[in-house]
Specification:
Beta-galactosidase, Chain A, domain 5; 9-stranded antiparallel beta sheet
């Protein structure tokens, strides 16, 4: 297990079945779905037998742990997984990493591509944005059935140009569009304990790094490259941030903290500190 700052969130990794859980308040908020990547017009999964579409196996060929310091978020422990489409140690096509921070209530999910990949697109129309070409992290959500997971019982806010009341509700079983289908922030909260909440959002490459309920992935909540990306170049990377609240930190406070951290990460200033509002990005 890996614990973040003040044990506000815990990552449990099972190397036997290649699954992970995100635990907060002694509950499993997120249960993982299989690791997934699509390229050369072929689907690959770490658990093809769990997928609704035919897929080839994705093999874990290396697992290692490191630690270090991020200039914005501080000290971290990292668990990295290298994946291949052949069951050999001769090269990997994808690396996924969990980065758990000791001084912030943050887990980063990182994807790294060591080689050029093409044939990733799943179409060219707008609807294709709903599909994922990579999925990490990927979390199970119930579909047309009784709630099975904690995530099905959490309240949520999504973002669609502005906070959109039509994208507020409980559970994700009937949520397929709007802010969930984008690179915008997504808030989940405990209905009976408002200071227990999580924000999930892209940290980098906002135009390509989406979170969606991908129809081809059992409608799981999937983060990564959306289905209209055609190819990527060697050394391309993506980062998704999961930020958790601390005691007495409600939804407004966690959203403000998320905005502050995003500004710090990109070396930006808050709107109140800017003289020219039209030249800079800001989060209020």
């Amino acid at each position: 297990m890996f614990h973040s700052y003040k044990n506000s969130v815990t990552l449990y990794w099972n190397s036997n079945n290649l699954e992970y859980q995100i635990i907060r308040d002694n509950e499993v908020w997120f249960e993982s779905g299989p690791f997934f990547i699509h390229f050369n017009q072929t689907f690959y999964s770490s658990a093809p037998e769990q997928e609704m579409l035919p897929m080839l196996p994705l093999y874990l060929i290396e697992q290692y742990e490191t630690n270090g310091t991020d200039v914005v978020f501080g000290l971290f422990d990292r668990l990295s997984l290298r994946w291949s489409i052949t069951n050999t140690s001769n090269g990997f096509v994808w690396e996924t990493s969990f980065k758990i921070f000791r001084e912030q209530s943050i887990i980063l999910f990182e994807q790294y591509f060591p080689i050029d990949l093409s044939g990733m697109s799943q179409g060219n129309d707008r609807n294709t944005f709903k599909y994922s070409s990579t999925a990490f992290p990927r979390f199970k959500v119930s579909f047309n059935q009784t709630d099975q997971y904690v995530i099905d019982q959490l309240g949520h806010f999504t973002f669609l140009d502005a906070w959109d009341l039509d994208m507020r509700g409980v559970g994700l079983k009937n949520v397929f569009t709007g802010g969930l289908y984008s690179g915008n922030p997504f808030v989940l909260y405990n209905l009976t304990k408002i200071d227990s909440n999580i924000i999930l959002s892209s940290l980098t490459n906002f135009m390509t790094n989406f979170q969606t309920r991908s129809p081809s992935l059992n409608y799981h909540l999937s983060c990564g490259l959306h289905g209209r990306v055609h190819q990527i170049v060697k050394s391309f990377s993506l980062k998704t941030i999961l930020l958790t609240s601390e005691p007495k930190q409600g939804i407004n406070q966690i959203v403000k903290l998320w905005g502050k951290l995003m500004l710090q990460y990109y070396g930006k200033q808050h709107i109140k500190e800017l003289k020219d509002l039209h030249r800079d990005f800001y989060v209020s």
